[in-house]
């Protein structure tokens, strides 16, 4: 088994997408998707995620840089950037991200939602086939 | 032990918003993960045993499934599906 968290091997896509959008009155600022770069990821986290998440990111990235230098292998660095790219994507909409975090906290503490509020992948595909 | 993989409401909306070719990638993912232990697969040595886990999917790992594992119920609850491809 791979020691990474992906079924296929990790590969950096290198996509570069978007810049910040103007804030909407009355709701939190929703940002465009950042590029998969440390600076772009950090900008989204700094704008929307708060200091604790930002500190985690900085520490994680620093550790990955150190490990990459020690090993002469960029795998851990690209995997770390990829993982935080998904995190930054989620924080583009801080209201939705906080709702998601509250939901998974509830699932972890109280158990899954009732069966009527869940759908198997097979059921989903039966209703959404090509 | 074979786990049932199920989507909660918001994850179902995530999946419904994906283009068909990405759903086909998810099909392959869902088929593959049934043969592994979702609580341990892909976890690096020393990684903490967190209730919320993630696994990547897609040919270049452009997708991410976030889920919780409930061993007593043999249930994996998918709470979010992201696609950055």
Folded structure, characterized:
The complex is a heterodimer of chains A (130) and B (85). Chain A has 130 residues and is an all-alpha fold. In chain A, 56% of the residues lie in helices and 2% in strands. Chain A has helices at 38-48, 51-71, 75-91, 94-110, 121-127; one strand spanning 118-120. The longest helix of chain A has 21 residues, at 51-71. Chain A is extended and about 50 Å long. Chain B has 85 residues and is of the alpha+beta class. Chain B has a single domain (4-36, 48-83), classed as YaeB-like fold (2-Layer Sandwich), CATH 3.30.2310. In chain B, 26% of the residues lie in helices and 33% in strands. In chain B, strand 3 and strand 4 (75-83) form a beta hairpin. Chain B starts with a strand and ends with a strand. The model of chain B has no long low-confidence stretch (mean pLDDT 92). The A-B interface holds A 1-13, 15, 33, 36, 82-83, 85-86, 89-90, 100, 103-104, 107-108, 111-113, 117-121, 124-125, 128, 130 and B 4-10, 12, 15-16, 20, 23, 26-27, 29-30, 32-33, 36, 41-45, 51-52, 54-62, 64, 66, 68, 70, 73, 75, 77, 79-80, 82, 84-85.
């Amino acid at each position: 088994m791979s020691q990474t968290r992906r079924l296929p091997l990790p590969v950096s896509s290198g996509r570069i997408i978007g810049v910040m959008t103007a804030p909407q009155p009355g709701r939190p600022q929703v940002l465009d998707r950042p590029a998969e770069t440390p600076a772009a990821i950090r900008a989204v986290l700094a704008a929307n995620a708060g200091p604790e998440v930002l500190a985690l990111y900085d520490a994680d990235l620093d550790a990955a840089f150190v490990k990459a230098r020690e090993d002469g292998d960029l795998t851990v660095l690209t995997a770390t950037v990829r993982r935080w790219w998904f995190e930054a994507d989620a924080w583009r909409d801080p209201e939705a991200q906080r709702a998601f975090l509250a939901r998974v906290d509830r699932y972890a503490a109280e158990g899954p939602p009732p069966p009527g509020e869940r759908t198997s992948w097979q059921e989903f595909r039966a209703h959404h086939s090509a | 032990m074979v786990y049932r993989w199920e989507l909660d409401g918001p994850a179902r909306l995530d999946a419904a918003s994906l283009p068909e070719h990405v759903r086909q990638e998810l099909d392959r993912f869902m088929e593959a993960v049934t043969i592994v232990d979702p609580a341990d697969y892909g976890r690096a040595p020393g990684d903490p045993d967190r209730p919320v886990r993630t696994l990547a999917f897609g040919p270049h790992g452009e997708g991410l499934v976030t889920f919780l594992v409930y061993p007593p119920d043999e249930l994996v609850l998918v709470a979010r599906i992201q696609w950055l491809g």
